[in-house]
C-alpha cells in the first residue's frame, strides 16, 4: 500500500531481484529504546508523494488452475474445547523485496517465542508468539516506529491480561499518537499495521490498512482481516460521515487506504475525529489441529494473487520441504512474475513442526447405471447427429 507512485523504468524482475529472506529471526529492535532519534536519518531518502500509479497485473499460467478450482471458504470459529489436546508450536519465515519500486518502505516482525523475548514472569501465557507486517508510505519513519513500539504498547497496557482485545485496539491508537509526538520523525509518513498475537491456542489478528492475514485450514483459505480500502462500503460511509471525500478510490485524493498509522498531515490534530482512522479491526480465533499455517502479506502480494491461491501454493511447498522461509520466497517470486507494482513483504507462520498431511479424497462406491429406456433414448439422439 502506498500513495500513488509511478514506476519510472522497466525492471527485469527475475534477473535483478534480491530477496531479503529470513527465517524465525526477530526483526524487532530493542523495545527499551523510546527516543528513536536515529530514525530521522531515513527521512531524506523517502520517495516523492505526488506521483500517480498504474497497476498492470498478469497471472502465471502454472497457478491459474489452482485459483479457478478453489473457492475461498467462509470462516467459522472453532467451538470451545475442540481438540483440547492440541498445543501449537510456532515457527516462521519471512521474505521482503523492494520489487519494481525505487524505495523499500515495508517493515515486519517475527517472534516465535514471545515469553523468551519479553522475559516475562511464569504466569505469562505460553506458548506465545507475535508477528506483524507494516506497509509504509511517504517514507519509512512510521513503519519503523510502529514495528519497534507496537508490541510494547500492547503488553504494557493495563487491560492486557484481562481484556486483550481492548489492549490491542488501544495500543494501535497510542502508538499513532506517540509517533505524532516524536519530533525527530516525519509525522507525515504513514503505515498500515497488521499484527498477529498468539497466546496459547488463542490468536488475535489486528488490522488497520490493506495488508491481509489468511489462515490455511486443511487447504482452505480463511481470510482473517478486511482490506480497508476507501471504496469499501463500510469505510466509505465512515469517511463521508466524518467529512472526508473519496476521489478515484483515494481518501481525500491522497491515500489508497482508509486506515493507517501516521499521516498526520491528513488527520489534523490529536483528539479530533479523522476520516483516516488508526483504530484496527480485530478477529479472535481458537487454533485447532486443522489450522496449519498463517500467511501475512502487504497488498503487493494480494494485488496479484487470491487468498486461496496463496494458501494452496504454501501448502504444496510445505509438503515438499516443510520450510516456511522458502514458502515466503516462493510467494514473493510468484508475485513478481505476476508484475506486482509494489513492495513485497510476506510472513508465513506454521503451527506444527510437521508438514501438512496429504488430503485423501474418499472414492465413491456408488454404482451408476442407465435404464433400458434411457439407453434407447441416447442411441436415438446419437444416431441423429
TrEMBL record:
Domain PPM-type phosphatase: 91-351
A GO CC term attached to the entry: cytoplasm
Entry keyword set: Hydrolase, Magnesium, Manganese, Metal-binding, Protein phosphatase
Cofactor: Mn(2+); Mg(2+)
Top-level taxonomic group: Eukaryota
SMART domains named in the record: PP2Cc
Coiled-coil features, chain-numbered ranges: none
Cited Pfam families: PP2C
InterPro entries, per database record: PP2C, PP2C_BS, PPM-type-like_dom_sf, PPM-type_phosphatase-like_dom
MF (Gene Ontology): metal ion binding; protein serine/threonine phosphatase activity
Reactions it catalyzes: O-phospho-L-threonyl-[protein] + H2O = L-threonyl-[protein] + phosphate; O-phospho-L-seryl-[protein] + H2O = L-seryl-[protein] + phosphate
EC numbers: 3.1.3.16
Family listed: Belongs to the PP2C family.
Protein name: protein-serine/threonine phosphatase
Organism of derivation: Tripterygium wilfordii (Thunder God vine)
Amino acid at each position: 500500500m502506498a500513495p500513488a507512485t509511478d514506476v519510472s523504468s522497466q525492471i527485469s524482475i527475475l534477473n535483478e531481484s534480491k530477496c531479503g529472506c529470513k527465517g524465525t529471526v526477530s526483526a524487532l529492535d530493542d523495545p527499551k529504546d523510546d527516543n528513536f532519534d536515529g530514525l530521522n536519518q531515513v527521512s531524506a531518502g523517502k520517495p516523492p508523494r505526488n506521483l500517480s500509479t498504474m497497476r498492470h497485473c498478469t497471472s502465471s499460467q502454472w497457478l491459474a488452475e489452482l485459483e479457478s478450482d478453489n473457492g475461498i471458504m467462509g470462516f467459522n470459529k472453532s467451538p470451545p474445547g475442540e481438540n483440547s489436546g492440541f498445543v501449537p508450536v510456532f515457527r516462521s519465515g519471512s521474505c521482503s523485496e523492494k520489487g519494481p519500486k525505487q524505495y523499500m518502505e515495508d517493515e515486519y516482525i517475527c517472534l516465535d517465542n514471545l515469553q523468551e523475548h519479553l522475559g516475562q514472569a511464569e504466569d505469562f501465557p505460553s506458548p506465545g508468539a507475535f508477528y506483524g507486517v507494516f506497509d509504509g508510505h511517504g517514507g519509512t519513519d512510521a513503519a519503523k516506529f510502529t514495528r519497534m513500539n507496537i508490541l510494547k504498547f500492547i503488553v504494557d497496557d493495563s487491560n492486557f491480561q484481562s481484556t486483550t482485545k481492548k489492549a490491542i485496539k488501544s495500543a494501535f491508537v497510542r502508538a499513532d499518537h506517540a509517533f505524532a509526538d516524536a519530533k525527530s520523525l516525519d509525522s507525515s509518513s504513514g503505515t498500515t499495521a497488521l499484527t498477529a498475537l498468539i497466546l496459547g491456542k488463542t490468536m488475535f489478528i489486528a488490522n488497520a490498512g490493506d495488508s491481509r492475514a489468511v489462515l490455511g485450514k486443511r487447504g482452505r483459505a480463511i481470510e482473517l482481516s478486511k482490506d480497508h480500502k476507501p471504496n469499501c462500503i463500510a469505510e466509505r460511509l465512515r469517511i463521508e460521515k466524518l467529512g472526508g471525500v473519496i476521489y478515484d478510490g483515494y481518501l481525500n485524493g491522497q491515500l489508497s487506504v482508509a486506515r493507517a498509522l501516521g499521516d498526520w498531515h491528513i488527520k489534523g490534530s490529536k483528539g479530533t475525529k479523522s476520516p483516516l482512522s488508526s483504530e484496527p479491526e480485530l478477529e479472535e480465533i481458537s487454533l485447532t489441529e486443522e489450522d496449519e499455517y498463517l500467511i501475512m502479506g502487504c497488498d503487493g502480494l494480494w494485488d496479484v494473487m487470491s487468498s486461496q491461491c496463496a494458501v494452496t501454493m504454501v501448502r504444496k511447498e510445505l509438503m515438499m520441504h516443510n520450510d516456511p522461509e522458502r514458502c515466503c520466497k516462493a510467494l514473493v517470486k510468484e508475485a513478481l512474475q505476476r508484475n506486482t507494482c509494489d513492495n513485497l513483504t510476506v510472513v508465513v507462520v506454521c503451527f506444527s513442526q510437521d508438514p501438512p498431511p496429504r488430503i485423501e479424497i474418499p472414492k465413491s462406491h456408488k454404482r451408476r447405471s442407465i435404464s433400458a429406456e434411457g439407453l434407447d433414448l441416447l442411441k436415438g439422439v446419437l444416431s441423429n447427429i
